[in-house]
Amino acid sequence: MQYFIQTFGCQMNMHDSRRMDEVLTRAGYTPAGAVSDASVVVLNTCSVREKAEHKLLSALGTLKSLKAVRPDAVLAVAGCVAQQEGEKLLKRAPHLDLVIGPDNIVELADLVRHIQRGGPPIARTVFDYDEPGFLRAFPSERKREVTSYVTVMKGCDERCSFCIVPYTRGKERYRTSDDILAEITQHVAGGVREVTLLGQTVNSWYEAGRDSRGTASQFSELLYRIAREVPKLTRLRYTSPHPRHVTDALIRAHSDLAVLPSHVHLPVQSGSNRVLRRMIRKYTREAYIERAHRLLSARRDMTLSTDIIVGFPGETDEDFEQTLSLVSEVGFVSAFAFKYSPRPYTPALKFGDDVPEAVKEERLATLFQHMELQQQRHLTSLVGSVQSVLVEAASRDGSSRFMGRNQCHDIVHIECAPNPDPIGQLLDVEITEAYKHSMRGIARGSTHAAPPLRMVRRLPLAV
Fold first, then answer.
1. Burial of 393 by CB count in 10 Å (0-12 exposed, 13-18 middle, 19+ buried)?
2. What does the alpha-carbon distance between residue 203 and residue 168 come to, in Å, rounded to a whole number?
3. What are φ and ψ of residue 460, in 5° steps?
4. Is 90 exceeded by the pLDDT of residue 151?
5. Which of 58, 102, 153, 393 could form a disulfide with 199 if both were Cys (CB 3.0 to 4.6 A apart)?
6. What's the CA gap between 155 and 229, in Å, rounded?
7. pLDDT digits over 292-312, tens only?
8. Cβ distance 240 to 163 under 8 Å?
9. For the segment 94-103, what is each residue's pLDDT rounded down to a tens digit?
10. Does 50 score more than 90 pLDDT?
């Protein structure tokens, strides 16, 4: 039996697809090279934006012909749209066999067998509040992995007015630090060099009663423990943090720990206090800028990227100008920006969608133009410098080039001899050219030792 998984959406969905891959593989299924060869097809969905749902419905329409030719094939929808719609999806797409939520991934193989034995279509979308479960990722047996994701928490308690995640992922649940450390250690033993900690609001992670006093361990303490107990880990990233949980201790960790790279993705969504209040973001423009500047000061070469929504209900031209001015003041090097789209079950629905589509399009284009100029200035400033680049893969064009990322998470295309194999190594790369969204460089040498736990520079912090 072969399976095919198609992923829509964010890093969290990519991680969930990897977990589904492992669940099916361990149950005896093998991956198919194409959807037409598969006996099991899983569409792993995202519902953060309306566009992702449209892609799902289009894909389901395409798979209707596959089901007509091969009625024994199992068609499943997983992820946030599955959690959001549940049994409604089975009614909208009668050729669909299975709807499965993110918390039920561990049951995927059993539910597929239920269908294959002649069972009726089923929707399984139950949150695991009583006994939270976190599927551990294992090093891949089929391909070499330099980077990997490790989930530390799931769900969200923030209740932003535009966001459907609390509805589709539930309230926050946290994984134990011992379990997180064990998974990271296993990844590193299997060849992984960079781990990204995942969570809807990853820096809200805590663990009650960790020390002898019974007090909670915070996210920053988790970072210190990973750096101390997994010394062979080359880089440790995390996404996505919430600005409200950027604490003094977290900023200090970026000053202290060399394993943390010089980049943080810190969503802002808007630069207008009025819009931020309507979004229920629980911070002001001024508080965001202050924390962003302190993060930037923690390391000499620190950079920030962000998420921005344009055309939120009630956003005026002045509100949008405040977003542009914040983008300039903070100096983001890149951004994920998109137009607001109404999501079901969100508080923002009561505002209506009063910003015309043409205005949204114009604002988005203006923001992209603004961001591209800032990114270009950043990349151009690195030409002539020597960057420490973690090599992730060989170039897809069959040339002698390789692809990696520097400390600031910028993509670097590397001219490098293939022997010895550089994949998974840190190379000193001289940057020779800046492109629109990446750079080109020539390898000057490599360092195979992982960065030690050391003091980079102590940052004076207010108590």
1. middle
2. 20
3. -70, 125
4. yes
5. 153
6. 27
7. 999 999 999 999 999 999 999
8. no
9. 999 999 999 9
10. no
Three-state secondary structure of the chain: CEEEEEECCCHHHHHHHHHHHHHHHHCCCEECCCHHHCCEEEEEECCCCHHHHHHHHHHHHHHHHHHHHCCCCEEEEEEHHHHHHCHHHHHHCCCCCEEECHHHHHHHHHHHHHHHCCCCCEEECCCCCCCCCCCCCCCCCCCCCCEEEEECEECCCCCCCCCCHHHHHCCCEECCHHHHHHHHHHHHHCCCCEEEEECCCHHHCEECCCCCCCCCEEHHHHHHHHHHHCCCCCEEEEECCCHHHCCHHHHHHHHHCCCCCCEEECCCECCCHHHHHHHCCCCCHHHHHHHHHHHHHHCCCCEEEEEEEECCCCCCHHHHHHHHHHHHHHCCCEEEEEECCCCCCCHHHHHCCCCCHHHHHHHHHHHHHHHHHHHHHHHHHCCCCEEEEEEEEECCCCCCEEEEECCCCCEEEEECCCCCCCCCCEEEEEEEEECCCCEEEEEEEEECCCCCCCCCCCCCCCC
Q: Copy the structure tokens of residue 107.
A: 């049951």
Q: Which amino acid, residue 13?
A: N
At position 137, the amino acid (one-letter code) is A
Question: pLDDT for 273-289, tens place per residue?
Answer: 999 999 999 999 999 99
Neighbouring CB atoms inside 10 A of 143's CB total 6
Contacts of 178 (CB under 8 A, 6+ apart): none
CB 307 within 8 A of CB 270: no
Residue 210, pLDDT score: 61
Q: Is the pLDDT of residue 449 over 60?
A: no
Higher pLDDT, 407 or 18: 407
